[in-house]
Amino acid sequence: MKDDPNEICRYLITQHGSITAALAAAIESAAEAQAMEDLYALSIWRDVKRILREKITDQPDLAQKAD
């Protein structure tokens, strides 16, 4: 799971209960990676955020409730 943005998305949605909460967690994690100057992790989190944003756009009715 560590390097697969799709798996990370599924995990975050499961852990946080909604796509929007998962996105908030991903944004926080990306900020941490940026602060640590971890460019590889930052690129993974960028993909995770993109995927979650696409899910919100494609499935707005699921954005607030558990997947």
Give the DSSP E fraction (strand runs of 2 or more residues).
under 5%
What is the molecular shape? elongated
Based on helices, strands and strand pairing, what is the structural class? Answer: mainly alpha
* Total domain count: 1
Name a few traits of the molecule.
3 helices, 67 residues, mainly alpha
Q: Can you put this structure into words, describing what you see?
A:
It is a single chain. By secondary structure, the protein is mainly α. It has helices spanning 5-16, 19-35, 39-58. It has one domain (5-62). Helices cover 73% and strands 0% of the residues. The protein is elongated. The model has no long low-confidence stretch (mean pLDDT 91).
Quickly describe the structure.
The protein is built from three helices and no strands.
List the helices and strands and how they pair.
Blueprint: H1 5-16, H2 19-35, H3 39-58
Helix pairs in contact: 1-2, 1-3, 2-3
